[in-house]
Structure formats: C-alpha cells, structure tokens
Design brief:
Blueprint lengths: L1 H7 L9 E9 L5 H9 L17 E6 L3 E7 L9 H12 L6 E7 L6 H13 L5 E6 L6 H14 L4 E4 L8 H10 L18 H16 L4 H4 L1 E10 L2 E10 L2 H8 L4 H18 L2 E10 L7 H6 L11
Parallel strand pairs: 1-3, 1-4, 4-5, 5-6, 8-9
Antiparallel strand pairs: 2-3, 7-8
Helix pairs in contact: 7-10
Bound molecules: guanosine-5'-triphosphate and magnesium ion.
Length: 316
C-alpha cells in the first residue's frame, strides 16, 4: 500500500497508466450523485430525496497509482417544463459526447416506467459507439420476490456491455463496478494532480451546500424555484465570510423561504454553515438574503446571470 501512496505523488506514472472519462447519467433521483460521492469517499455533489437535485455537470476525480478516472455527474434526464429544465437536459445530453464510457444508473427497486423507456431512446440516440454500462442501483430496497423480474426488466431496456447490481447508499457492488470501469479506461496520462477531487471552486461548493439545505427543508415548488448566488466570499487566516442571495420566483415563495419570524432561513443557514465549517475546516460566517427574481427559470438572461449558461464542448 505505501508503495502505491508514494507513487501517487510523483510526477511520473507507470507506462500502463490508464485514464478516461465516465459520464454518469440516468433519470432524476436514481442515485447518480450518491454513487459519485461514494466512489470518491467524499461528498462533492449534493444529494436529496427530491428529483432534479443536480443542475450542472460536475466532475469527480478518482486517482490511484495506476489510473485516473474522471466521473461526470449530470442532471437527471426528464421531460423539461421550463428553460432551467431544458438547460439541465441539454447539459446531460452533451455529456454523452466525448466520453470513454457511459454509465447509466437505474433504480432497480421499481419496475421500469415510461421515463425509463424514454431514457433508453435517449441512450440509443446519443451513445454512438461508446460502451454502455448499467448500474442497477438501490438493490438494498429490492425484496426477494421482486428481485429477478425487476433486474431482468431493467436489463432488457438498454443494450449494454456490462451490468452491475449496486447500492450507492451502502456500497454493495460498488467495488466490482469500479474494477470493471477501470479496466475499460484507455491508456493515458494523469490529467489532474492526485489531490484534486473536483474542479469546482469554493464559491460554487458553498452555493450548492446552501441549495441542498433549501431542497431538504422545503416542499412543493420551492426546492426548484430557488437559485443561490454568492455575493461575496472573503477569506482571511482563520475565517471565511460568505454572503449569499437565495433567489425565488415569487413573493409568496420569499415568505416561505424566510419562514415565520425568519425561522426557515435561520434553519437553512445553520445547517449550511455547519457543513461548510466541516468542509472548509475554518470558522464560517454566513449571511443569507432572500430576493424575488421574477420567473427566473423561464428567462434565459436571468438564468445566465445565475450561472446556468449554455454548455461548451467538453475539454479533456
Ligand atoms: N435506498 C437507497 N437509496 C439511495 C441509493 N442511492 C441513492 N439513494 C437515495 O436516492 C435519493 C436521490 O439520490 P441522488 O444521488 O440525489 O440522485 P441523483 O440521481 O443524483 O438525482 P438528480 O440529481 O435529481 O438527478 C437520495 O435520497 C439518496 O439518498 C441506494 O443505493 N439505496
Ligand atoms: Mg444528482
């Protein structure tokens, strides 16, 4: 093991070093972000029990002495209802290009639905000649009676080069999936320093942590109507000062996010701050404001202002 660790931090990598990109795609809420966090052993992507949590492409970098795998987390593929949804689906579809493997996550705890049929069509349309691996996730929720029928039905949906039963939640089957994926990576260099887990900056991470707490604490349309903008992010030796605005689409939503006597925004702030303290290992001062940015999800210009910009071609 120590051999491995030493070689991890040298500039050289072995001649048979492998590297490549794995696009992780699937319908909303199937566990894509949970799987990437588990594989990396650290939370880089926010997770919630509500669909459409991930809104952008996010990179997770897994490095060992012999390989570097770039996992691309994507928003769930769904039928979009507004411009934000269209943007999310576009981001996900774009990630099917220029990848070495497409890893499709399916929720095997449920029988396939029309959405899965549509997913199959999307994969067929976009995969080109790229190998497709299926990860049948949430196996921990599968009863013995459902087991074979659900597994067979999901496997029959999408032509694939390999399939794995996993639980991203408790880790079952993840090591075998990873070993399979690693073998499919072409020979190639290390693209990122071994200590990098992602390419996101701390401003973005902070905005996502705040958005996750909104998603976990609110219901109905609120989780989807909130965008978080970091107004300032200042660091000194032992403090970080973050000021952020939670943009909602309507006055009524503003009232809900603030809550009675400010109770809701206080709860969101406390939970976000607690997590940021752990991540940044420093004292965090967090100041949250709530503003109405009328119907921002339907307005491309406002979306761009909030960072939901047209995707560019993947860089490698
Ligand atoms: N029981 C169980 N729950 C899981 C598993 N994997 C993920 N979940 C739960 O499923 C929910 C959705 O997980 P996410 O990782 O946010 O799903 P996602 O595919 O990234 O969703 P979007 O970002 O909305 O597309 C969360 O509540 C997870 O805790 C699993 O293996 N077993
Ligand atoms: Mg996600």
């Amino acid at each position: 093991m120590s051999d491995d660790l030493d070689s991890l931090f040298t500039e050289d990598w072995p001649e048979d070093h492998r590297s490549g990109v794995i696009t992780v795609a699937g319908r909303p809420n199937v566990g894509k972000s949970t799987l990437i966090n588990r594989i990396l052993g650290q939370k880089i992507a926010i997770v919630s029990p509500k669909p459409q949590t991930t809104r952008r492409r996010q990179l997770g970098i897994l490095t060992d002495a012999h390989s570097q795998i770039l996992f691309v987390d994507t928003p769930g593929l769904h039928a979009p209802q507004h411009k934000l949804g269209e943007y999310m689906v576009q981001v996900a579809e774009q990630a099917f290009k220029d990848t070495d493997v497409i890893l499709i996550i399916l929720d095997v705890s449920k029988p396939p639905e029309t959405g899965d049929q549509r997913l199959a069509e999307t994969v067929e349309r976009l995969r080109g000649r790229t190998p497709v691996i299926l990860a049948l996730n949430k196996v921990d929720l599968l009863s013995d009676e459902q087991r074979d029928t659900h597994i067979d039905a999901h496997k029959a949906l999408i032509p694939h080069e390999g399939a794995h039963l996993i639980s991203a939640m408790n880790g079952d089957g993840v090591a075998a999936l990873l070993a399979d994926l690693r073998e499919r990576m072409p020979l190639g260099p290390r693209y990122y320093p071994p200590e990098d887990l992602t390419e996101m900056n701390m401003r973005f991470v902070a905005s996502e942590v705040i958005r996750e707490k909104v998603m976990l604490n609110t219901d109905k349309e609120i989780p989807y109507a909130v965008a978080v903008e970091i107004d300032s992010f200042r660091e000194n030796e032992d403090n970080v000062f973050i000021s952020a605005t939670l943009h909602v689409e309507r006055d009524s939503q503003k009232g809900i996010v603030i809550g009675k006597g400010g109770a809701m925004i206080k709860k969101i702030g406390t939970e976000a701050r607690r997590e940021l303290v752990e991540m940044l290992e420093t004292v965090v001062h967090l100041d949250l404001n709530v503003k109405v940015l009328k119907n921002w999800r339907k307005n491309e210009r406002l979306m761009q202002r909030l960072g939901y910009r047209q995707v560019k071609e993947d860089k490698r």
